[in-house]
Amino acid sequence: MRILLALFFALIFLQSSGQIMVCPSCEIKDLQQAVNLSEPHDTLIVKSGVYPVVDLEITKPLTLIGEKGAILDGQNKSYVLKLLADSINISGLKIINAGKSYTKDYAAIYASRANHLVIENNIVVDPFFGLLIEKSKHGIIRNNLVYGENVKEDEAGNGIHAWHCSNLQIHDNEVFKMRDGIYLEFVDESIIEENYAHDNVRYGLHFMFSNNDDYIGNRFEHNGAGVAVMFSKFIIMKSNVFINNWGPASYGLLLKEIYDAEVLDNEFTENTTAVFIDGTSRINYVGNVFNKNGWAIKVSGGCYTNRITGNDFKGNSFDVSYNSKMNDNTFDGNYWGDYTGYDLDKDGVGDVPYRPVKLFSYIVNKTPETIILLRSLFVDIMNFSEKVSPVFTPDNLVDRTPAMNAFK
Amino acid sequence: MIQVTDLNKSFGKLEVLKGVSFSINRPGVFAVLGHNGSGKTTLLKTILGMVIPNNGELQVNGAAIKRSWEYRKDIAYLPQIARFPENLTVNELIKMILDIRNRKGREVELIQRFGLEKFLDKKLSDLSGGTRQKVNIVLAFMFDANICIMDEPTAGLDPVALIELKKLIEEEREKGKTILITTHIMSLVEEVAEEIIFLLDGKIHFQGTLEEMQKQTNEKDLEHAIAAMLVPNGTHNH
Amino acid sequence: MIKILKYSFYDLMRSRWSYVYLAFYMLLGFVLLFLNSDLSKATITLMNIIVVLTPMIGTIFGIMYFYNSREFTELLLSQPVKRSTIFLGQYLGLSLSLSMSLIIGLGIPFLMYGITQSDAVGNFITLLASGTFLTFIFVALSLNIGLGNSNKIKGFGYAILMWLFFAVIYDGLFMISLIVFGDYPLDKFALGASLFNPIDLSRIMILLKLEISALLGYTGALFQKFFGTNLGILISVGVLLLWIFIPVMLMLRKSLRKDF
Predict the structure, then answer these.
(1) How many other C-beta atoms can be found within 10 angstroms of the C-beta atom of residue A112?
(2) Rounded to whole angstroms, how far apart are CA atoms C105 and C17?
(3) What is the reported pLDDT for C216?
(4) Alpha-carbon gap, residue A109 to A136, rounded angstroms
(5) Residues of C at the A interface (Cβ-Cβ below 8 Å)?
(6) DSSP label at A92?
(7) Which residues contact A41 (CB under 8 A, 6 or more apart)?
(8) Which domain holds residue C207?
(9) Alpha carbon of A254 to those of A168, A192, A196, A274, A301: distances in Å?
(10) Domain membership flag for residue C161
(11) Taking all residues of chain B, what is their mean pLDDT, rounded to a whole number?
C-alpha cells in the first residue's frame, strides 16, 4: 500500500514539478496565497503550524499535503475548504473550528462537481458537516477521522455526507458523535468498507435513494441506530458488525422500502432491534449471527419474498416478530437457540419444525407494556399453548429444517 | 399455686370448657379425671399456655399467665403422645431442652433409671412408643420444676417402667411438688393421687379427696365411684 | 431465639429433604453449565428456574415443615420460651436452611466453572439474592397458611394455590388488564402491579440486569427511569423487604392466638 502510495506521488511529481511549501516562517505563509500561486497539478506542502482558513476555494487540480502538526483553523466562520475541480487530493490535514449554522450546511471540506477526488488521512474536529461531497464521481475517501461532541440531532451535521455521487470508495474512516456517521443520498455504485461509526446521534450509516452500493466489513457501535437503508435497491450488506445500538426505538439495521438486497454474514449483538424491516422485498438474509438482541428480526408492513436462511439466532428475547398474521417470507435452515426439537437421523437438521414467532411477541406488539411480563411462567405457558395450536401468529411461518448446531 | 377462674374454651362450635373454676393451693398429686373428650387435655394445655382460653383467668404462682412465658420455668410437662423432632437423637433432644431452659438437670440419673443409655444416639424416629415415653419422662422430671403436668404418662410403658414412674411420682410428692396428672388407669390414681378433679361436660363436677369422693358416691371402689359420678345426680339417689 | 433457630436449623439439616433440595440445585447447576458452558447464558436460563422454583420450594417446604414440626413446636411451647421467639426462630431456621441449599447448591458448580472470573458474577449474585428473598417471602406466606389451617390437606392445597397465584395467575390477570385497558397510559399501572407480586418484582430486577435492551427499547422511559436507577433498585429491595416483614408480622400475630 505504502509503495503504491509512493509511486502515486512520484507520478504526480513527474507530471508537475511544481511544489509549494507553506509554513509560518516560509516565504509563503498563507494557504490562499499558495493556491493563487499554484499551477494545476502542483503540490502544496503544508508544514506544521496553525493556518486560518475560511472559504478557501480550490478550482484547479491540486494536491494538498499536510505534514505533521498542520492545522487549518476555520475560525468558526464558514466552510473551510471548498473543492470545486476534478483531481484534487487532500491529505494529512487537521481541520478545526469549521463554521456552524442552522441555515447553511457548512462543512470542513466541501466538494462539488469534483471528480476523482481523494480525501485521506485527515482529522476533522467538531465540524457542522465533516466532509460534504456533492455531484462528484470516482472519489476516494479513506482513513479520515471525523468527530464531534454532539448529543442532540438538530445541532449536528453528518460526518461524511455524499449527495448525488457515484463510484465513491469510502473506507477505513472513523466517525463518532455526529448526527449520521456516513450519509448517502442518491449515491450509486459505491463501496463503503471497513469504516467504524460509533456514538452517533442518529445513524451510523444512512442510505437514501441509493442503488447498487456495497457496504462491507464496517462496524456500527452504540449509535442511535446502526444503519438505515431506505428507498434503495440492489444493496449488498456484508460482514458488518452491528453492536450495542440500543435505546427506545433503536435498531441495528433499519430497512425501509428497499428491494433486491443481500444481507450476508453480518453480526448483530445486543441491539434493541437487530433488524427492523418495513416494506422490503426480495432480500436474502444468509449467514448472519443474531446474538442477545431484544428483537432479532422485526417485520412490519408488507414484506414479501424475503428469504432468511442459514442464520444463527442466539439468546434474543424475541427471534422474529410480526405485526400481522400474513407471511410471505421463508425461514429455512436457521439455527434457533430456543429450539427444543430432536434429530433422530443425525443429519444436523431438527426433525420437528420450529415456529420463530411467539404469541408473546404478538401481544407485545399490540400492547407494549406487557413486555414487563417477559420470561414469566405465564408467558411461557401461553407461548407453549400457541406453539401447540397457532391462533394469533402466522401459521405458515415455520422453519421446517432448523439446524441443530450453530453455524458460527 | 394454680388458680383457675371461670375458664371457657371452644374450638369452633364445640364448647370444651364451660366455666371451669378450681384452685390448687398445696403440694401433692392431683388427678384430673373425666371421660374421653371431657376437656382434660385442653385444661392442662390451657394452664401451659398452649391453648388460649376464650375467657376466664388463670394464675400460676399468684400471677396471671396471659401473654407471659416466664412462669413455665416452674412447670414440667409430659405430653399425652410423645412425639419429637424426628431428626434429632435422644441425646441431642435432652441437650436441646437443657440448653433452652438454660438449667442444669439430673438427666444422667433418670436415663439410668429408665435404662435409656443404649438409645442415646438413636434418632427419635427410630424408637418404639414406650421408649419415647421414657424419654418424655426424663425430659419432664430432669428439672426441679415445682409443678409437673402429666397427660397420660403411662401410655406404652412396660410394667418395670410403670413401677419406676410411680416411684418417681412418689419421690416428687415427698419433695413438695404439685403434680397434675390425667390417666385412665384407676389403680394409678388410687395409688398416687390425693385429690381428684373431675371434669364433666366442660365443667368441674367434683373436686376433693378420694375419701370424699367415695363418701359422696357411696362406692368403695374408685372405678365404681367414678361410674356413679358419670350418672346424672337426679337418678343416682339410693 | 438464636437457640430455637439453631435447633430448627439442625433439625432441617438432618432432614433428607434438605439434601434432596441441595442435590437438585447442584445437579441443575452442573447440567446447565454442561449443556452450555457459556456462563452468562446459563445464568439467564437459571433465572427462569429460580423465580419459579424458589417460591414453590419455599411454599411447599414451609407448609410441610409447619405440619411436620408440630410436635417440635408443642415441645417448645411447653418450655419457658416466648411464642414469638419460637415461631420466628423456626421461620428463620427454615428460610436460612433453604437459602443455604440454594446458595451452596448453585454456588459450587458455578464456582467450579469460574464464575468469579466471569463478568456474569454480578448477575449471578443478583440471582442468588433474589432466590433468597423469594425463599424468605414464600416461607413466611406459607407458614401463615399453616397457622390458619389445622387441616393439613386444606393447608397444603391453599399453599399450592397461593404459589400458583403469584407465579402464574397474577401475571395472567395482569396481562389481561394490560390488554383490555390498552388505550390508557399503562406504564404506571404496570409498574405498580409488578410491585405487588414479589415474583414479578424479582424477575424484573434480574431481567434488567440480564437483558435490559428489550425492555428499555420498547416501553421506554418510565421503566428505565424506575428500575434503571439506584433509587428504583432501592425501592425494589425495600418492597421485597416489606414482603418479608409484613407476612412475618402477620405470622407472629396469628401464632399468639393459635391453640396447640
Answers:
(1) 15
(2) 13
(3) 53
(4) 13
(5) 41, 44, 47-48, 51-52, 167-169, 171-172, 174-175, 178-179, 182, 186-187, 189-191, 194, 199-200, 203-204, 207, 211, 213-221, 223
(6) S
(7) A12, A15, A16, A18, A61, A62, A63, A87
(8) 2-155+166-257
(9) 23, 17, 18, 8, 13
(10) no
(11) 84
CB A293 within 8 A of CB A268: yes
Number of domains composing chain C: 1
Q: Which residues of chain C register pLDDT less than 50?
A: 213
- The Cα–Cα gap between A345 and A349 comes to 9
Whether C182 is covered by a domain: the verdict is yes
Residue A112 has pLDDT above 70, yes or no: yes
Condensed to tens digits (0 to 9), the pLDDT of residues A264-288 reads: 999 999 888 899 999 899 999 999 9
Over the stretch A160-195, which tens digit does the pLDDT of each residue have?
A: 999 999 999 999 999 999 999 999 999 999 999 999
Which chains are within 8 Å of C by 3+ CB pairs?
A: A, B
The CATH fold of domain A42-388: Pectate Lyase C-like (2.160.20)
pLDDT over 90 percentage in chain A: 58
Q: Which residues, 6 or more positions from A68, have their beta carbon under 8 angstroms from its beta carbon?
A: A48, A92
B74-105 pLDDT, tens per residue?
Answer: 888 888 776 677 777 888 888 888 888 888 88
C-alpha radius of gyration, chain B, whole number: 18
Whether the per-residue pLDDT at B155 is higher than 90: the answer is: no
| pLDDT over 90 at B8, yes or no | no
State in Å, rounded, how far the first CA of chain C is from the last one. Answer: 20
The answer to whether C182 contacts A366, with C-beta atoms less than 8 Å apart, is yes
Residues in chain A: 408
What are C126's three cell numbers?
Answer: 443478583
Residue reference for cell 402491579: C193
What is the rounded distance in angstroms from the CA atom of residue A391 to the CA atom of residue C207? 28
Rounded CA separation B44/B55 (Å): 16
Contact between chains at A378 and C48 (C-beta distance less than 8 A):
no
The closest of A182, A187, A181 to A211, measured between CA atoms, is A187
Q: Cβ of A372 and C204 within 8 Å?
A: yes
SS3 state of residue A286 = strand
Q: Would you list which residues of chain B are within 8 Å, Cβ to Cβ, of chain C?
A: 11, 45, 48-52, 67, 69-73, 75, 77, 79, 83-88, 92, 96-97, 99-101
> A239: which 3 cell numbers?
460482514
Q: CA gyration radius for chain A?
A: 25
Q: pTM (2 decimals)? A: 0.81
The average confidence (pLDDT) of chain C is 85
As given in the structure block, the three cell numbers for residue A108 are: 470542513
pLDDT at A5: 66
Query: What is the count of residue pairs from A and C with beta carbons less than 8 Å apart?
Result: 101
Domain edges within chain B: 2-235
Backbone φ and ψ for A142, nearest 5 degrees, come out as: -140, 155
CATH superfamily of domain region B2-235: P-loop containing nucleotide triphosphate hydrolases (3.40.50.300)
* Predicted local confidence at residue B238, as pLDDT: 41
Task: Tell me: pLDDT of A313 over 90.
Answer: yes
Q: Does C160 fall in a domain? A: no
Q: CB-based contact (8 Å) between A381 and chain C?
A: yes
Q: Which helix (H) or strand (E) holds C209?
A: helix C198-210
